[in-house]
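Observation: inputs received (chain + heme C).
Thought: call the complex predictor directly.
Action: predict_structure
Action Input:
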Amino acid sequence: MKAIVLTGLCLLGLSLQTSVFAASPYAGQARAAAVCSQCHGIRTPSAEAPFPSLAGQDQTYLETALKQYRDKTRKNDVMNAIAGSLSDTDIQSVASYYSKLKP
Ligand code: HEC
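Observation:
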């Protein structure tokens, strides 16, 4: 009984997550604003910030970078951990969002 309830809760959590982060620039924007901007900033960060600017980057470049972080072919502890929880859809929408931002 307990297992059934837990499974149900997990499924609910999963479906909520996918509906919130559907592939649209707006879903990417919400996620980016909530998570990525804490380090990458909304616009270009100051020159001495250790975080690369994502605004205006090529969409394909961003998607490739995130997929490399996710499968750990590009190594960085912070980004490996973050990209590890992103789905293809998340990567697409977040890349689309940042590629459309003016640097
Ligand atoms: C805790 C801080 C932190 C957070 C949060 C964070 N990043 Fe990063 N990110 C970094 C650091 C540090 C690097 C540089 C890593 C390196 O040298 O490879 C980086 C690198 C990147 C790169 C490669 C940029 C380039 O020019 O090659 C991309 C793309 C990226 N992050 C996307 C994201 C996205 C999308 C999110 C949100 C889902 C995010 N990051 C959240 C710290 C962060």
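Thought: report the result.
Final Answer: Residues 35-36, 38-40, 50-52, 54, 62, 65-66, 76, 78-79, 82, 94 surround heme C (CB under 6 Å). The first helix runs from residue 2 to 20.
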